[in-house]
Structure to design on (136 residues):
């Protein structure tokens, strides 16, 4: 059973923030295969320094990271008026009600539990970006 991956005529600019090289690389492969432009950040500080310059359409952000965790990173992005509407999808191995509620409080638009698959990432792109919605 082969998976059909939709290619978008104009890819979405997606940032993946995770301290795990393996997770960043997996997400990058899934998203690039679907025709999206992918930017990588190793932690929250790295992401914050790149968001302004790269202007992604969507951010996937790990929760558990050193120095600045995903909740803090999301909250900082959402508090900035320029990026308040930027969709942030939390990625975490923690799937408890408290964890998901904390993500919503920080301003996250969605929460995906690890391990994730390509379909989950691509569905989030379609759900949270105008380009993704228009390409269905």
């Amino acid at each position: 059973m082969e998976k059909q991956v939709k290619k978008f005529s104009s890819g979405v600019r997606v940032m993946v923030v995770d301290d795990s090289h393996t997770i960043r690389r997996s997400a990058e492969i899934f998203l690039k295969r679907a025709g999206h432009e992918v930017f990588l950040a190793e932690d929250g500080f790295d992401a914050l320094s790149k968001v302004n310059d790269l202007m992604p359409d969507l951010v996937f952000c790990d929760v558990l990271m050193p120095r600045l965790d995903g909740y803090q990173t999301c909250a900082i992005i959402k508090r900035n008026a320029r990026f308040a509407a930027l969709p942030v999808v939390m990625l975490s191995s923690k799937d408890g009600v408290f964890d998901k509620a904390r993500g919503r409080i920080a301003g996250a638009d969605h929460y995906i539990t690890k391990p994730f698959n390509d379909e989950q990432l691509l569905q989030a792109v379609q759900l949270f970006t105008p380009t993704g919605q228009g390409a269905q």
Observations:
- The helical segments are 21-33, 44-54, 70-79, 97-106, 118-128, 130-134.
- The chain has a mean pLDDT of 90.
- Residues 19 and 65 are 6 Å apart (CA to CA).
- Strands lie at 13-17, 37-41, 58-62, 88-92, 110-113.
